[in-house]
Amino acid sequence: MTALVGPESLWLWIGTIGMTxxxxxxxxxxxxxxxxxxxxxxxxxxxxxxxxAAMYFAMATGFGVTEVMVGDEMLTIYWARYADWLxxxxxxxxxxxxxxxxxxxxxxxxxxxxxxxxGTGAIAAFAATPGTRIAWWAISTGALLALLYVxxxxxxxxxxxxxxxVASLFGTLRNLVIALWLLYPVVWILGTEGTLGILPLYWExxxxxxxxxxxxxxxxxxxxxxxxxxxxAVTPS
Length: 237
Ligand code: RET
Hints:
The protein is mainly alpha-helical and 237 residues long. It contains 9 helices and 2 strands; from the N terminus they run ααββααααααα. The chain is globular. The site of retinal has 19 residues, from helix 3, helix 4, helix 5, helix 7 and helix 8.
């Protein structure tokens, strides 16, 4: 069998190192935290980057990759992305939901939509014809838009009921999520998965790496950097 991982492995290794450093940084920062509610944010965020580091390592070493026949063309598909996102995107939403003080139904709706989005996105990646790939992509993008709608609606309303510092931190993180998450379907459809042949695999892999590091490590740094704000989020006023 020929090696499936090409020159894009450079970006996959940078992703592996970045996620590992992020994990170590969050572990270091979380060591002194004693409040169980505060610990929740650290535990969730540490799992996010740990899972991503493992999946980037899987991709860089050729385990997390396969080939899919689309028409008469062979596509290289990094399936480990979907394994990563299936677990890490719900955890990111859980971080945001805890910060906003959301109730169980809101959390369940968000996470349900998210899993539906990644599941249908994975079907899109494995579908055998360009038409069905784009149809599944559209279904998945619909779920993303519904999810962002809940984020801007119910969740933002919940956050506004918190102290002004918490509400403002929530606003920053929410805007970061909206800006970054909307780029994923764009990179996907322009990249090799979309079969339009606009963005080559090398640059697509670089783009996903930058997005993943920003959406996980960047998000975690912003969330965890202000201990006093988080303390306010976990102490009932
Ligand atoms: C796919 C393809 C199909 C259409 C849509 C997608 C959305 C993916 C998203 C991924 C977010 C990942 C994050 C990772 C963190 O590091 C599956 C690419 C809508 C939104 C935040």
